[in-house]
């Protein structure tokens, strides 16, 4: 279905590197959806094509506000050049933060009054991360509370720029935005006290892997070397810095045990369904001991919960 500027285009396309490193892949892993937002997100081809459609051709296009071209005198302006005006006060008290996800209804027009996108016309609200959008949206959203409807006049420098490009509206953009919901991410798990080294009661294998069962499982069978597993996990470097967590993303991760680093392939085969274990994986079974431009190195510590697996 053609949409003028789909949610992904409006949001500058939710970050192209959609997943942080899977736990322990042998090669470059696919990345889960909640990775740190990129500073240069990309617009999908489909979204770009949809955005190129002439909004004036849509009989459902909503009429532009009378002040679409220029913010009125009572609009509040910020140092960035953003101008906003509350249309309907909200009932909430909290403002969205960088790490939050918001659900909104919105309509956007160019300064000449042409509608280029509208969740209202589509009849479906849109959800996205506060920092996964153009800078003008990020700034304006943090001024709002749930239930509020606000008009935003976003200058080109914090939108898509002044130069017209296929798939992007150019120049100043005007949006009417209703903030429907704010969702905060789960709190990150605490750093294990024994993150730096396995304790005396940890079991060790011939390869150098150390592990300890934190919560006993209910299953009897173990995954095999090529099984596909579904897990929740968090990973830390030995100095206690968390580098990845499906827990904070609020979504388990699935992968084949032949697609991950040796420490994970070996460790998961020791587990049963429902079990939670801690692994201390030496560099030789992980990403190596030499520093890299991106990604962890050296001994890594993981808390892993095996939710399910298929042979």
In short:
The chain has 6 helices and 14 strands. It is elongated, with a radius of gyration of 24 Å.
Report on the architecture of this protein:
This protein has helices spanning 7-10, 45-51, 119-122, 135-141, 246-249, 262-268; strands at 76-77, 83-88, 101-110, 115-118, 126-129, 149-154, 173-183, 203-204, 210-215, 228-237, 242-245, 253-256, 276-281, 300-310. It is mainly beta. It has 2 domains: 7-183, Chitinase A, domain 3; 203-310, Chitinase A, domain 3. The strands form 2 sheets. Strands 1, 2, 3, 4, 5, 6 and 7 form a 7-stranded antiparallel beta sheet that branches. Strand 3 (101-110) and strand 4 form a beta hairpin. The model is unreliable at 1-57 (pLDDT under 50).
Which percent range describes the beta-strand content? 25-35%
Percent of residues in helical segments? 10-25%
CATH architecture of the largest domain: Roll
End-to-end separation in angstroms reads 38 Å
Low-pLDDT parts are 1-57
- Class of the largest domain in CATH? Alpha Beta
How many whole angstroms does the radius of gyration measure? 24 Å
Question: What is the fold-level CATH name, i.e. the topology of the largest domain?
Answer: Chitinase A, domain 3
Q: Name the helix and strand elements from N-terminus to C-terminus, one letter apiece.
A: HHEEEEHEHEEEEEEHEHEE
Overall, the morphology is elongated
What class, by secondary structure content? Answer: mainly beta
